[in-house]
Amino acid sequence: MKKILVLFLLVMLLAGISYSLYAESLPTSMESIPAVVESETIGGHELPSTYMVIPFVILLLMIATGPLFYHHFWEHHYPKVAMFLGFITVMYYLMVLHDTHSLLHTLAEYLSFIALLSSLFFAAGGIFINVDRKATPVLNVALLFFGSIIANIIGTTGASMLLIRPFIKINKNRIKPYHIIFFIFLVSNIGGALTPIGDPPLFLGFLRGVEFFWFISNVWYIWLPTVLVILLIFYFRDSANKDGQDQLQEYSGKIEFKGGKNLLYLLIILISIFIDPGVMSWVPSLAPLPFGIREIIMFSIVVISFKTSDKEILKKNEFDVEPIREVAFLFIGIFATMIPALQLIAHEANILGEQLNSGIFYWSTGLLSGFLDNAPTYLNFLSASMGKFGLNVNDKIEVLDFMNNHALYLQAISVAAVFFGAMTYIGNGPNFMVKSICERAGIKMPSFFAYLVKYSIPILIPVFIVVWMVFYFGRG
Amino acid sequence: MSIISNLQNDKLMGLVYGNRIILPFECEILKIVIDTNILTDFSPANRDALCQSRHGFTDIYFLDYKDLPEQLSDYELIKLIVVERGKDIFDFNNHIQLGVRITGSHTIEIEKLPEDSLFVE
Q1: pLDDT in tens, A349-406
Q2: Contact B119 A439 (CB under 8 A)
Q3: pTM of the entire structure?
Q4: Min Cα separation B38/chain A (Å)
Q5: A324 pLDDT exceeds 80?
Q6: Which end of chain A is more exposed for a tag (fewer CB within 10 A), N or C?
Q7: Measured CA angle at A57 (ends A81, A350), to 5 deg
């Protein structure tokens, strides 16, 4: 399986490099492309056939139904399924569209995504936190709120990896799936809406030119009531849980922390996020390679963390690479198969841009972020909303113009991309990892559909409707 | 012959052959967690695991796996909730949480999981 993965990455890498070399010999001006062709193209390439969305739909359906109806097959073969469906899309782009640019671009996004996730996963895996206190709804609310805040400092992935184990341990005698679901809602997703470090889509916006502190100053008044309302719902639900009350265990009240070395690794990862030619001009670009210095640092942290982390802590945390392996395989399939879906959405959004208001941008960015990866979805809708005002997402000055003069649109897209990532297990990278860690701890997690029907739709959608009505309905 | 009840800081040795682990005591198994699989159905029709308590030892066949030493990492535990043969299964105080770690190509270590371990009954 490793060989197939390496081969898959190599095909995409070589295709991208060869395209980059070929492209240098072509005229760079897009003005020579006739307008009528431009309307049926994306970045100068032909639009994919609508049928090419089928591999993506199949993959989503299999992720949803596999663990439920054919889990023996799914557990053994999900890497092959994800790679095969991704391979169909890759071959279509290579053979039919001759569009290696989209593949290289997606590969770069995937490597960036998995570098961040895996480095945070490995670094946080060597940190041990133990809170020896009696679980109460108030303590849980405090922990979830704390997680929502630090998600903006160490990212939703870092916060999830750091806090999920102590959260389970505190609630060991009374834990139910809803504990984990609310953890995913708040710490793995909604919490991280205040800074570009919080969630990958906002980081992409930051790389394009949105100011670092724009998010906190423009999103906090939506973030705070949303987080508080969800915490309130959690509090009432948790107060009704009477399990474990008859336990006569004594608690010291101590909070134990081990693995300071790995905190340093986390810090390096956070600093490395900014080591990008788009942020610091002195950072060399490694183009046409689909990764940069940042990804090299992050992958180095993966190796260093694994080699140097305290073995006793790894044992206590029952550290295992399987959760990140699962994410790596599934998301390589998701990233590859979603290329046609994203391009078709971007195309339609550009055509319909004039008619779209902030509310429509909010819902479309949000609902698609729940099922596609929220980072590229965010970028496509950012591009479409800027296009509505004749602005170009690739020009930093125009992004600043958009940020200053059309903040409502930028806010709607940013809020939706982060918040709606909580809608499904695949909406955001850490969701799946948290699920996997919990299952290893013996907690039976709801299926893909049960998560949607029992939790996301009844809890999140009403909250998101209120956000829409208060902040976007009838505006812009 | 209360082997697991008296198990404190010591570790018991067991055996692993392919997808079969052999625990050196007789017990009733209530729950197993291996990877992300939570197994509680040990009826004959089940395709996940087959448990057999024999004279002096207990066999578990993980039917979903071919070779446990190859498929599980050094840090990964197989977690079990067991009741020693002869003890009252309805008394939760008799439910013992065990962790099984594969230590060699045919050896396993069995230990009582500490109170603060990440395992929920």
Answers
A1: 777 767 788 899 999 899 988 887 787 788 778 888 887 887 877 678 888 999 999 9
A2: no
A3: 0.79
A4: 6
A5: yes
A6: N
A7: 130
What is the ipTM for the molecules in this complex?
0.76
From B38, B77, B116, residue closest to A439, measured CB to CB: B38
Tell whether B118 is within 8 A of chain A (Cβ): yes
Is the dihedral angle over the CA atoms B44, B46, B52, B53 positive or is it negative? Answer: negative
B45 touching A (Cβ < 8 Å): no
